[in-house]
Amino acid sequence: MTATLWERRKFFRIPTSGKALLRHGVHLEGLYQLHDLSMGGCLLTHGPDCALHERVIAALRVEGEDGLELCARVVRQEHTADGVHVRLSFTEQAPLFEDRIQDLVMRTIEREQHSEILIVHEQPERLERLLVAMRAIGQSIVIARTPSDALEILESGVRIDLAIVAPALGESSARKLVRSVLRRFPHVQCVMLSPGSVGRLVHAIRASGVYDRLPWTLTHLREVIGRHELIMGART
Predict the structure, then answer these.
(1) Is 64 left (phi over 0), alpha (psi -120 to 50) or beta?
(2) Domains in the chain, please, with CATH?
(3) What's the whole-model pTM score?
(4) Residue 207, φ and ψ in degrees, nearest 5
């Protein structure tokens, strides 16, 4: 436990989106979502419910980056409602690898500064309080009323790293849209609003010092969302 806490303090973790394929020798251990990354390790989410070897090879793929293949040790494996979450500690940290991770972190931060948030809602006028709160912390919003509009925006080249999806989209399936986004745009963190979460999110933004940290980074917004469990992940 002490070692885990030391690693968290020593290595800066950057939220990111991508894929991670684990293997042990020639045997595949499962495909995961890459949730965050540091020079010390990474967190993988939404994986298969299976036993893992303690030592694995992790092949990481982040959008727009060359693939990384690293030796790692499984330090934590948790079973959740949306799949298995795995924390890896990298066992080899060559200077070249550290340089690549540092470059990746800096490019991720730069992308955040030019990224927009996609909100998919059939009646976005009902989200006025949320839109005002998001813009007050410096976030740029793109609105889509239908799943087809959302996919068109994503395909247009607009930089989207976070998509917030209403639980109901008329006759369309919100979860089907989320699955499609995750499959075609793996860098997008796609989540679905839970009942009552809009009001709680607005309150959390205002309570977290709206005027103390302007503009907010997307990372800080994600931290607020995660800390208050305001949005239900929809990675299915």
Answers:
(1) left
(2) 2-111 (2.40.10.220), 115-233 (3.40.50.2300)
(3) 0.55
(4) -80, -15
